[in-house]
From TrEMBL:
PANTHER family: INOSINE-URIDINE PREFERRING NUCLEOSIDE HYDROLASE, URIDINE NUCLEOSIDASE. Keywords: Glycosidase, Hydrolase. The keyword Hydrolase applies. Residues 11-308 form the Inosine/uridine-preferring nucleoside hydrolase domain. InterPro entries: Inosine/uridine_hydrolase_dom, IUNH, Ribo_hydro-like. This is Ribonucleoside hydrolase.
């Protein structure tokens, strides 16, 4: 007797493509374990206009002609926008591959409204939010329509870190860009799984991984090779990594196969006022001062299974 395949998990992918966001989108598009209910964009790796154009182009590569794509917030809730740095993602936010003319239409609604409509229009507990950029859209949706907090299955976000930062010694880019939004998300009474730098720095697109994408011999595989041909040297020059970590892909992989990512219960608070620590995700694994360990924090990755999962999904794309 054949065991029935579990139903795919419906996700809203809230992103700012970005090379690793692009690969995360391709993973979600190609794997039967998830269904993309909507893609929303937020200003982060580049301006909102550029990352939205990139999302439409990657959705075109993935053949997502019927998926809703909507542009969301273009700046943080309170602070001035962090100036984009073209050294990591280029002037377009997605330098390297030739971006196709989008065949996917942009939804006229604001991305925050799409998030609310998607969650409120679904059965409770059936939509997972997967933010891979600054958390402005997610926080705004939760404040505008608080009922979504009780209806979302989970928030699986790429951001933060319990021992390191990458913009400052303490803060990771997505959290640092809009710490007030991150505070809203981590303070709301829903489960958050934080896929931070301590985990994502293990997901390196090494030369052998690039060759495996090249060997797929598909349009999507070549697109990934071209992504990494820019992203690898750019990351090496700026951050000193021998191969680029594909941060955002880890969040989608966690949703598809939770066993790939080891997690620990923790309480996470976002520092808003520290002179040197603004944007730090202060992570308490011990429940000091009676703090409830209300979220999950990623600590380890099964690297080999991770890349098998990603390559398998990209290989399924026509």
């Amino acid at each position: 007797m054949t065991t029935p395949r579990p139903a795919p998990r419906r996700i809203v992918l809230d992103c700012d493509p970005g090379h690793d966001d692009a690969l995360a989108l391709l993973l979600a598009a190609g794997h039967p374990g998830v269904e993309i209910a909507a893609i929303t964009t937020v200003g982060g790796n580049q301006t909102l206009e550029k990352v939205t154009r990139n999302a439409l182009a990657v959705a075109t590569v993935a053949g997502l002609d019927d998926v809703v794509v909507a542009a969301g917030c273009d700046r943080p809730l309170v602070r001035e926008a962090v100036l984009t740095d073209p050294r990591t993602h280029g002037e377009s936010g997605l330098d390297g591959p030739a971006l196709p003319a989008p065949t996917v239409a942009l939804d006229p609604r604001h991305g925050v409204d799409v998030i609310i409509d998607t969650v409120m229009g679904a059965e409770p507990g059936t939509v997972t939010l997967v933010p891979t950029g600054p958390l402005t859209n997610i926080a705004t949706a939760a404040r505008r329509q608080p009922d979504i907090v009780g209806r979302v299955a989970e928030v699986v976000l790429m951001g933060g870190g319990y021992s390191k930062g990458n913009v400052t010694a303490a803060a990771e880019f997505n959290i640092y860009t809009d710490p007030e939004a991150a505070h809203v998300v981590f303070s709301a009474p829903w489960r958050v799984t934080m896929i931070g730098l301590d985990l994502t720095h293990r997901a390196l697109a090494t030369p052998d991984v690039v060759e495996r994408f090249r060997a797929l011999g598909t349009t999507a595989g070549r697109f990934v090779v071209d992504l990494l041909a820019f992203f690898g040297p750019a990351y090496r020059a700026k951050q000193g990594f021998p191969a680029p970590p594909v941060h955002d892909v880890c969040a989608v992989a966690r949703v598809i196969d939770p066993d790939l990512v080891r997690v620990r219960p923790a309480h996470v608070a976002v520092e808003l006022r520290g002179e040197h620590t603004t944007g730090m995700t202060v992570t308490d694994f011990a429940g000091r001062a009676g703090q409830e360990l209300d979220h999950l924090v990623a600590t380890d990755l099964d690297v080999h299974r991770f890349w098998d999962l990603v390559l398998g999904a990209v290989g399924r794309l026509a």
